Amino acid sequence: MQIKPFRLSLLGLSLLIPAALCAVVLFLLIFSAQAIGFNGFGFITRVIWNLGDLYGDPVTVRGVLVPNGANYGIAVFIVGTLLSSAIAILIAVPLSVGAAIFLAEAVPQKIRPALSMLVELVAVVPSVVFGLWGIAVLVPFIGTMLGPVISKYLGFIPFFAGGDSGGGYGLLAASVVLALMITPIIATTLLDALLQVPKENRESAFALGATHFEVVSKAMMPMVRTTLIGGIVLALGRALGETMAVLMVSGGGLNILPNSIFSPISTIASFIVSQLDSAEGDPTNMAVRSLAEIALVLFIITLLTNAGAKLLTSGGLHVGKRK
Amino acid sequence: MSASASSVTARPAKPVRSAQEIRRVVTSKIGWIACGLALALVIGPLLDIVWVVAYNGASAFSPKLFTSSTPPAGVGLWNAIEGTFVISFLAMAVAVPIGVGAGIYLSEYGNNKLGNTIRFLSDVLTGTPSIVLGYFSYIVLVGGLGWGLAAPAGAVTIAILVVPYLARITELALRQVPVAMREAGFALGASEPTVVFKIILPGALSGVLTGALLALAISVGETAPLIYTAGFSSFPLDLANPVHSILHSQIGYLTYVIWSFIEQPDAASHALAFAAAFLVMLFVLAINIGVRLAVRRK
Predict the structure, then answer these.
(1) How far is B1 from chain A (nearest CA, A)?
(2) ipTM confidence
(3) Which CATH number fits domain B63-297: 3.30.450.40, 3.30.360.10, 1.10.3720.10, 3.30.1120.10?
């Protein structure tokens, strides 16, 4: 075979992408190997994150040098991550389904592009600006209005009690911000799918005497179900890895599992940012290595989620474009 | 004519709706209202974010923002504006050649197993949380290679983040160029590089530029991957020795100002945070709206 330098150089450039990915995984693995050995499987089930005595002499535990009393467990952050993302999905799905249906069917063709552009623009607002808005608007709103109302009328449900603790910072604020950030992902995916449902399917439903809303909810929605689920899982992947907005409004809970929607929490991503400073104070480096192990755990969680989304959407609906 | 006229006059009274029909109609009405509300709840917060940021940002606006640095060095944002520019420029300088090159390969020669593998891994990289990339750079670039907290480590992290987007958008743009144009080029005896650089890339230039602009918007709005790679400094670049300053000292950027200053207790810091958010939002929204309007017009 003839060697083509032009193709080879382009191939070299594109191979940098897989190379970067492999480097990320490989170096996180190598760097955290000692921590993985020290922490064992209990890493993901222990509740306590304790850096130990950073100023005393380090001690040797299980063959590695660590600060006296160091004990790393990330159950709190895994629970915080999964819980905030799950609540965000619960809020985001009805909102984005409703918004997509309204955009696809109820809005005049002339203003649809403008409105769908607004929905897309929600996705480009930087995470840190969402956090800023969360601190300036959402947290006071939850702290002074929504929180007291929820705990007054829904307080009998165990997880909804304890309204004003934290003044609005906590699980609920983090979930609402996450929900806002991921609605455009679900809504635009669903809108594209709804606009591709064949004209014949809509018309036959109309011909059977269905109302316009029944046409959408009973004839069109079932056809786009797979795409919708794919979009939701994709949005979940984004929510799990979100850092700044969550960090700013979540209240930064440590060492205690959330017991109400107002509890302060930390997610894996926000914990990495907030703790690296203190971890750097560890002379044995074990805290920094354990943070690398957390990053690896987050990578694996999002990888599995995104792979799930990919599997769901690749088998998705292939239908002709509606005229 | 007369038959149709008589049928109009003889039309029976409007049929009475059954209870079930009424229920269906009412359910539909409620359904539409719920959907409309949902749309309002999606767009409403965006408008509120824009309003809150624009209102507070505009009231904090003064020429001092562009002449003075962040506290304690001054009362403005100049070091952060400058730093955001430096980091984004470096990131684009690394990412655009790689992303566009990868996009060309995937579009022109990537219809095989290797191409599919690269595409898949590129998607995986897109889905990787930015903080994981930031942590990777922290241990490998900042610590391992000894680059220290400075603009290069931050810029490379941002580049890793945006290269998959660039490759994907470039690939899609190049695929829009008709095959006939490639064939015409080859028929005239042009070599592969000539066809790519003189025919395909110019034909897809607007698409490639779109990708580069969107990548620029992402890099200006990122925070998490920069905190432990670029660090932060309240002082502007040392203009006597700018290269050394960029390569070796910590550098300020706007998103960091938003994050850290809103958590300070005093109103002056909050004003700076909003002013920084205003600048970032203005830039990001201008690029995104501009690109969308330009694409729609075609």
Answers:
(1) 28
(2) 0.90
(3) 1.10.3720.10
